[in-house]
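User: Before I run my own analysis I want an independent prediction to cross-check against. Here's the chain; please return only the structure tokens and, at the end, one sentence I can use as a sanity check.
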Amino acid sequence: MHFALPHALIFLSVSCCHAVAADGATVTPVAPATATATRSLGITTRAGESTIAYDVNARGQVAAVLQDEAGRQRGVLFEKGVLTELAARAGQYSDAKGINQRGEIVGSASQSDGTWRAFLFDRVNGRRDLPTLGGPSSYGMAINDAGEAVGFADTEAGEWHAFAYAGGDALTDLGTLGGKVSYASGMNNHGQVVGTAATADDYRHAFVYSSVAGMRDLGTLGGRLSSATAINDAGMVVGASEMPNRQWHAFVHDGKRMIDLGAMIGYGNSYASDINSGGHVVGTVLTGDERRTFVWRDGKMTVHRGGKGLHLTNAINDSELVIGATYDLHMDAASMPSNAVPSIAKNPYRLFSYIAIVLLLAASAVAYRQLARHNADEPRSA
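Assistant: Structure tokens:
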């Protein structure tokens, strides 16, 4: 029920009591970088192609993308080893960004004239293109269990606006926060929508939308910008916010305040991509050229080192499966359990130091025993 928008569109993870909130309360323990094993989903493709998993439901059905060496993408449904391609009818590209519990997929496909159209797909009805907001293109980003979808589309004025689709022949324009553009990236089963929208001063802020309350600005963690990527049925929102120092921190908004997950991580730029019904949050930490997966689960922050963790961390389902992609020459769609216990990478120097300490302690014990024996053998003074 979510999708993390590309950073170009949005942006231009210890105990929960250690959060740093928007009100300025600060305690910032550093979560150590660790390594964990991942499991390939086993999507078989042509040589040289990358596979990236974007969403997964509790049944293990996966919405994914295949990408060739030229960068051409094809959206797919992957289920029990079977790959169903959602090929574009007239264009070269397609994607699959969200999947619900019934196996319905939302995505987008290129057209022969270079525009894109959002679509819904299921095995019974096949692919159905969605309309636009009066302009030439629309992009589908998330879907809930009722089959309602959200995304963004061109308006007649040439501006991108977030939309909601609940059936029929028209999209609902969700508006903006006073600016000209907005993008919807996630929704829950109550019809609440989250995303990013421009304010009157042209900054982009995370928003939550409902048909009753309209679009509400979630604010930032002290910086100028923020973006929301996913919302669960309890109304908890996740995303990322710029900090006063221009660094990006992942956040979770509990309906009252924005909690700083990035401060719990303690380093790098962090971005939250999804949250499940249990309130468990996953996302990515960027440190230099390295990407690390973070999991905020039951109040505890865990960071898994890239390379043995996921290179891209896109979603978590209610069965506690985290999915995305690993990277080794090319992307490979992969998963890991959210409660995976990280294993520290072996370090020969650390092992040597450990052995040296053990030997030193053993030598000390021998020396102590010899000294005690020597003292016992000496005559005692009257």
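Sanity check: Confidence is low (pLDDT under 50) at residues 1-29, 345-361, 378-382.
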